[in-house]
Design goal:
Blueprint: E1 10-16, E2 20-21, E3 26-34, E4 40-46, E5 52-58, E6 64-70, E7 82-91, E8 94-104
Parallel strand pairs: 2-8
Antiparallel strand pairs: 1-3, 3-6, 4-5, 4-7, 7-8
Protein backbone atom coordinates (compact mmCIF):
# COMPACT_ATOMS: atom_id res chain seq x y z
CA UNK A 1 0.00 0.00 0.00
CA UNK A 2 1.50 3.39 -0.94
CA UNK A 3 2.34 5.90 1.75
CA UNK A 4 0.13 9.01 1.61
CA UNK A 5 1.86 12.28 0.75
CA UNK A 6 2.08 14.69 3.67
CA UNK A 7 -0.32 17.60 3.34
CA UNK A 8 1.02 21.14 3.12
CA UNK A 9 0.31 23.08 6.31
CA UNK A 10 -2.25 25.86 6.10
CA UNK A 11 -4.45 28.04 8.26
CA UNK A 12 -8.04 27.42 9.22
CA UNK A 13 -7.90 30.82 10.95
CA UNK A 14 -5.55 33.37 12.48
CA UNK A 15 -7.35 35.65 14.92
CA UNK A 16 -6.41 38.75 16.88
CA UNK A 17 -8.85 39.53 19.67
CA UNK A 18 -8.50 43.30 19.34
CA UNK A 19 -8.08 45.39 16.17
CA UNK A 20 -7.46 48.59 18.21
CA UNK A 21 -5.23 48.23 21.29
CA UNK A 22 -4.44 50.80 23.96
CA UNK A 23 -0.79 51.15 24.92
CA UNK A 24 -0.04 49.41 28.21
CA UNK A 25 -2.69 46.70 27.68
CA UNK A 26 -2.72 43.26 26.08
CA UNK A 27 -3.75 41.58 22.86
CA UNK A 28 -4.27 37.91 22.08
CA UNK A 29 -3.39 35.92 18.98
CA UNK A 30 -4.94 32.55 18.19
CA UNK A 31 -4.02 30.19 15.34
CA UNK A 32 -5.72 27.04 14.09
CA UNK A 33 -3.74 25.04 11.55
CA UNK A 34 -5.12 22.69 8.93
CA UNK A 35 -4.75 19.82 8.83
CA UNK A 36 -5.24 19.66 12.60
CA UNK A 37 -1.91 18.06 13.52
CA UNK A 38 1.13 19.16 15.50
CA UNK A 39 3.16 21.68 13.46
CA UNK A 40 6.05 23.99 14.20
CA UNK A 41 4.97 27.62 14.49
CA UNK A 42 6.90 30.88 14.40
CA UNK A 43 5.05 34.02 15.47
CA UNK A 44 6.46 37.55 15.42
CA UNK A 45 4.69 40.66 16.71
CA UNK A 46 6.40 43.75 15.29
CA UNK A 47 5.60 47.18 16.72
CA UNK A 48 6.14 50.54 14.97
CA UNK A 49 8.97 51.41 17.39
CA UNK A 50 10.92 48.30 16.30
CA UNK A 51 10.27 46.43 19.54
CA UNK A 52 9.00 42.91 18.95
CA UNK A 53 7.87 39.64 20.46
CA UNK A 54 9.07 36.34 18.95
CA UNK A 55 7.91 32.80 19.65
CA UNK A 56 9.32 29.59 18.15
CA UNK A 57 7.06 26.82 19.40
CA UNK A 58 4.74 24.01 18.29
CA UNK A 59 0.99 23.84 17.98
CA UNK A 60 -0.79 21.29 20.14
CA UNK A 61 -1.72 17.91 18.67
CA UNK A 62 -4.92 19.47 17.29
CA UNK A 63 -3.10 22.26 15.41
CA UNK A 64 -4.04 25.00 17.90
CA UNK A 65 -1.77 27.72 19.32
CA UNK A 66 -2.63 30.86 21.34
CA UNK A 67 -0.77 33.55 23.25
CA UNK A 68 -1.52 36.73 25.22
CA UNK A 69 1.09 39.44 24.72
CA UNK A 70 1.68 42.82 26.30
CA UNK A 71 1.61 46.02 24.27
CA UNK A 72 4.14 48.21 26.08
CA UNK A 73 3.73 51.99 26.21
CA UNK A 74 7.00 52.60 24.34
CA UNK A 75 5.99 50.60 21.25
CA UNK A 76 4.32 53.54 19.50
CA UNK A 77 6.14 55.51 16.81
CA UNK A 78 5.33 59.04 15.70
CA UNK A 79 5.37 57.82 12.09
CA UNK A 80 2.98 54.89 12.43
CA UNK A 81 0.48 53.27 14.75
CA UNK A 82 0.28 49.93 12.89
CA UNK A 83 1.67 46.73 14.43
CA UNK A 84 2.00 43.44 12.53
CA UNK A 85 1.72 39.80 13.54
CA UNK A 86 3.45 37.36 11.19
CA UNK A 87 2.74 33.65 11.48
CA UNK A 88 4.59 30.79 9.82
CA UNK A 89 3.65 27.13 10.13
CA UNK A 90 6.04 24.41 9.10
CA UNK A 91 5.85 20.66 8.85
CA UNK A 92 8.93 18.96 7.45
CA UNK A 93 10.10 21.08 4.50
CA UNK A 94 6.66 22.57 3.80
CA UNK A 95 5.59 25.97 5.15
CA UNK A 96 2.68 28.41 5.11
CA UNK A 97 2.87 32.12 6.00
CA UNK A 98 0.37 34.88 6.73
CA UNK A 99 0.11 38.13 8.64
CA UNK A 100 -2.42 40.29 10.47
CA UNK A 101 -2.24 43.89 11.63
CA UNK A 102 -3.65 45.87 14.53
CA UNK A 103 -3.61 49.52 15.51
CA UNK A 104 -2.14 51.20 18.59
CA UNK A 105 -4.32 53.90 20.15
Amino acid sequence: MPTPKPKKPGFKYVSLWYKFVHLGTYNHVEVQAKPAIKDGIWVHVIFPSGRHWDWYESTDSHGHWAKFFRVYRNTYSGNSNVAYVTVQLWHGAKTAKTFRKFYLV
